[in-house]
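Same chain as my last thread, 232 residues:
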Amino acid sequence: MDRTLKVANVFSDPTRLNIYEHLVQSKDEVSVLDVAEAFNIHPNVARLHLSKLEEIHVIQSSLLRTGKGGRPSRMYELSNNVVELNFPHRDYKMLSLIAFETFAALGEEGEEALYRTGKKYGEKLIRPFIDKRNEKPLTIDEKLFILEEAGTMTGLYPHFTYDENKREVFLHIQNCPFKEVATSNPQIMCEMHKSFIKGMFNSLFDEFILTEQSNLFKDCESCSYRAKLITN
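reply #2:
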């Protein structure tokens, strides 16, 4: 079977898709029993779903030996493969690489243009969510909900928390949608990603200071940022 059709067939099951998204967001290894408990399904059904996901190489498994004897547990985690479905096939990743490397080859001016474009698209992403609310003043909770909803839609799977006393928003990104492109020059791509996030915040907050706290390409578990709110 063609890989595209096989991937489409595997993800046509809502539970299987939810299990995959659960793994993307948690980033932890899981067992069959973990999945069965999380989704209230029989372990045999959970094992079938995990096997199907492993068949298309979006997750991988290994045996966990406890040293206490007995049968080792099989643990599942995300692989480095990305799900891409296009009918007919269109290689947007190659186009992204060409565009990214072109900007990078232009030196400082190209990098600045890339950052401006990233910020622009971050703002553009948020705008429809604001427009739906008919220009009503938004609370902090509503703004964070918009950021989380928009971020999830783009595959970031973000999590936001707010420290009211310090007026700081903390953002943890569980998945990097630019990871495959970023491997050729992570520093530039991560700066572009930061500009993208700035654009998202810029659409909702008048003034803030955004700083990077951790980075997936620096052997951290996730990318995280802190936004110090100056004004709402």
